[in-house]
């Protein structure tokens, strides 16, 4: 593949140089969320001779997935916005820092892993820096909070997208509907890229279950309800505690296992203590081996207020667990008969449904069903690597007047 490095015309020397890996800048955090896990795992599955990822972050601190990402040959690129509370000053510094970075590094692709339409500001910086391929990738189908000015500007951010981005991706149809302007969504001018996992790693293991439950001080009599997610408003931990409190009141042998970290963690710990559930709720923290912990659970509950997909619910099904979800989880997340949707927010009703379904047999064909549904990341990695190669070649050809 002959192409130039950056956004400048090809010359004869560049045409004869040995092909270099496609350089992709992902606007993705390196913390503990699903976007990070997806991006770093895809990076590890791709051929480093063909594609290499860098990561754009907006705080200068060591992150949970940083060592894994950097070990794959990429770099963490920091535009530090910590300590800036004024939204206009923050946006100005963000834009200036991103444009300078992108002009200096001359990335082939800027891949914006977007949680809200506001993230199109990264695409704007890429456009100013003349990046040849700019991807907007929708990961959410709603959002919570944000300052007044940002919320007011959401329709404007959506209208900007077709003029700034060369390509659109989404983890689900509902994420595309929320994120993109109507003319992009209605025309189908986007590609659904399924978030997923390495399915065979989630095969149920009685040995792993015994080891993990022993380490957590759990006996065979304990009924373990699990949840994976950052402690943020989207994941609805407050309601989850109400559900578990109702369950535990009737069935004291039940336990709640929470995996994750986040800004609301101290608040949730306080609520657990206030409800007298300290001995029944396990705060696991973060882990690189989610599949191992899923073996210790008996059921999985996912009461999110909104989700672009809900990869944790997909993981739980692949691990064979019965899964109880809110109506906010997109239908694409259902891959097996173990997936159940509960309407409304009656904590007692949720608790009864979970307890009545506790004896459901573990679905040992979960990994195969996950693969059949397209949630094995090996196929996604091939899809994305081929996309980058094809689009970069097309992008540079257009810039240089080639057909």
Describe the structure in your own words.
This protein has 403 residues and is of the alpha/beta class. The chain has two domains: 205 residues, Glycogen Phosphorylase B (Rossmann fold, 3-Layer(aba) Sandwich), CATH 3.40.50.2000; 174 residues, Rossmann fold. The chain has 17 helices and 13 strands. The relative contact order is 0.12. The N terminus is likely disordered.
Short characterization:
The chain is an alpha/beta fold and 403 residues long. The protein is 42% helix and 15% strand.
Give the helices and strands, then pairings.
Blueprint: H1 12-16, E1 22-27, H2 34-45, E2 51-57, H3 66-71, E3 76-78, H4 87-105, E4 109-114, H5 120-128, E5 133-138, H6 148-152, H7 154-164, E6 167-170, H8 173-179, H9 182-186, E7 191-192, H10 206-215, E8 223-228, H11 237-250, E9 254-259, H12 265-274, E10 281-285, H13 290-296, E11 299-302, H14 311-318, E12 323-325, E13 339-341, H15 347-356, H16 366-372, H17 377-399
What best-fitting shape do the alpha-carbon axes yield?
Answer: globular
What is the residue-mean pLDDT, rounded to a whole number?
Answer: 90
First-to-last CA distance: 15 Å
Task: Output the CATH homologous superfamily of the largest domain.
Answer: Glycogen Phosphorylase B
Question: What is the H-and-E element order?
Answer: HEHEHEHEHEHHEHHEHEHEHEHEHEEHHH
How many separate structural domains?
Answer: 2
- Estimate the strand proportion: 15-25%
Say what the CATH topology of the largest domain is: Rossmann fold
Biggest sheet: strands, sense, closure?
7 strands, parallel
In terms of per-residue confidence, which ranges show pLDDT below 50 for 5 or more consecutive residues?
Answer: 1-18
Query: Mind telling me the CATH class of the largest domain?
Result: Alpha Beta
Computed Rg:
22 Å
Strand order, main sheet: write it out.
Answer: 3-2-1-4-5-6-7
Query: Number of helix segments?
Result: 17
- Proportion of helical residues: 40-55%
